[in-house]
What we know:
The protein is mainly alpha-helical. It has one domain (about 5-395): Up-down Bundle (Sodium/glucose cotransporter), CATH 1.20.1730.10. About 75% of the residues lie in helices and about 0% in strands.
Amino acid sequence: MSVSNPTLITFVIYIAAMVLIGFMAYRSTNNLSDYILGGRSLGSVVTALSAGASDMSGWLLMGLPGAIYMSGLSESWIAIGLIVGAYLNWLFVAGRLRVQTEHNGDALTLPDYFSSRFEDKSGLLRIISAIVILVFFTIYCASGIVAGARLFESTFGMSYETALWAGAAATIAYTFVGGFLAVSWTDTVQATLMIFALLLTPIIVLLATGGIDTTFLAIEAQDPSNFDMLKNTTFIGIISLMGWGLGYFGQPHILARFMAADSVKSIANARRISMTWMILCLGGTVAVGFFGIAYFSANPDLAAPVSENHERVFIELAKILFNPWVAGVLLSAILAAVMSTLSCQLLVCSSALTEDFYKTFLRKTASQVELVWVGRAMVLLVALIAIALAANPDNRVLGLVSYAWAGFGAAFGPVVLISVIWKDMTRDGALAGILVGAITVIVWKHFELLGLYEIIPGFIFASLAIYFVSKMGEPTRGMLQRFAAAEADFRLNK
Length: 494
């Protein structure tokens, strides 16, 4: 690997720019609220793009194009489910969660919000929700580190061990230094890079294969069923893929973006920007995998790396069809997708440890400066545990992304959604929802019942538990007053 390698130079410039943004954010980080939620100062564009980028990890440019390349359009149900789920999350949760967290003790984290919203004096709700965050996110962070390592390994021919540290180091650096503002600002740059890559690449692949008609004929010649949305699918299979959309209601790293918006007024605009970005990105992703079928059937001599690992379809198309400098920028988009999600997850784990354990149980009188530095130390701690989990190259951590997504979707999704729209929800209802959701996911996954994605039964059972347990008690007057004030604030300003 020569030092003049344009792809390497592009990567280095890109990573240096991200770390520089981290140092700029460092100067705006004065207290724990700044470090965890950026002082609730995000405008609609940053809110929208950082929510999108933190959601779409390496699977957007590797996993999904690879699945479409292998199986055709029948794999695109997951994209439809995600678009519907994200839209409903923006519509029902985003604005309400922004005002509810402010009215309930200016909560900085989800456990903080649950604790204030349901007046939980025992600390049980805070502890259990913080433990759920730490368990599922450490697995999630490890999967991001594996995806980054695979990218460095395949692009630069590094050993897996070297690639592991190279991929993780930059993300840890800017998250450690700049906290939430660094993560949100870098996410905005990364979202821009991702949409550029995903709109440009399919157009160039289409031109390289001779236009739309020739491309579609080549895909049909390879296998006519590539166009069949129902190929090799069952009703349960389609429901399982669509069920991914339910996960949005409970993802702490996405919900944190809503909590950090500068006002409810920004949310509607942010929703339009975010959904446009998401639809274009997912459409581009499906197109890259789909048109890749035509390109590699017309150029079988170039297809070996993709035959070996179909998740490399985007990487190989970028390398073959573009000038090395442009290819470097396009491949940086994969790094952007991995880094943006990983940085948010590290920060959420750090805030759970700092705000929900250290400040609440160990050092109630800790100064803001101390809390920010404890937050930074926790970023390092979680990152090192995640790197240790990812250290085995044969580790099937990437397979656990769907498990972590389901865990959050079922444990937190119904609690968050119902807590912002139903005034009569109680503390015991919330506790039952988190426990039933998390346990259902673990049990369902273990026994692989009905072949159904575990998020669906988890979400349904958790919702029922919240309703029936809440009906057995009643909320306090203070809970009802705060809910009504927040709802009035939401309706006045939306």
